[in-house]
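2024-03-11 09:14:02 INFO queue: dequeued item Glucosamine-6-phosphate deaminase, len=234
2024-03-11 09:14:02 INFO validating residues
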Amino acid sequence: MKVIRVKNQTQGADVALGILRDKLAQGDKTLGLATGSSPEAFYQAIVKSDLDLSQVTSINLDEYVGLPKESPQSYHYFMEEHLFKYKPMKAHFLPDGQAADLLQAAKDYDHLIEQYGLDLQILGIGRNGHIGFNEPGTDFSSLTHVVDLTPSTIEANSRFFDKQEEVPTQALSMGIASIMSAKSIILFAYGSEKAKAISGMVQGPVSPSLPASVLQNHPDVTVIVDEAAASLLK
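2024-03-11 09:14:37 INFO prediction written
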């Protein structure tokens, strides 16, 4: 696990863009993408760059259950507004949070991941150490599944909604084994509220109680953090 400390999100995005350029030059074709505030600057850097993504396929980590795709809070909408409408891709996929049969939708998504594979996976990290929507206690062997969101995750995501009670309580998320299948991973974390999770992820024991700690077992992980997020690292 390689930890890179940066001054701010703009510098972090530039570092990640350089990694992405190298990976594409090496033949990477499938990107696992994340939403939330952590990768926003990275997507802005991609949009401003000269990168051609027309032969690249993206597969997103997760989506809320029950939100229409056109809802401004949906991850479909987020990805369209921050990346897809500016950088056309060969194909892009997100979980179907409106599926009548969510369990079948999860299985279908696993088949998709198996079909395309994941070359470079982008991640953020929750304050409780979740990656994707894999909350503490999630089995490391998990594949795509329906997640009941914890109160802390609902609270953290409420900033994107008018009222906390509007935040969905479930999501469809790639599992931890799905994430770990990626050839390489970049994880972004900014701000002091992520410091405890980053410390546990990098230095703590590998345990389902902090899902991101499993990344210690991956052969190619780059962690991009500002000084606040890195403040508890030895």
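2024-03-11 09:14:37 INFO annotate: Residues 9-25 form the longest helix (17 residues).
2024-03-11 09:14:38 INFO item closed
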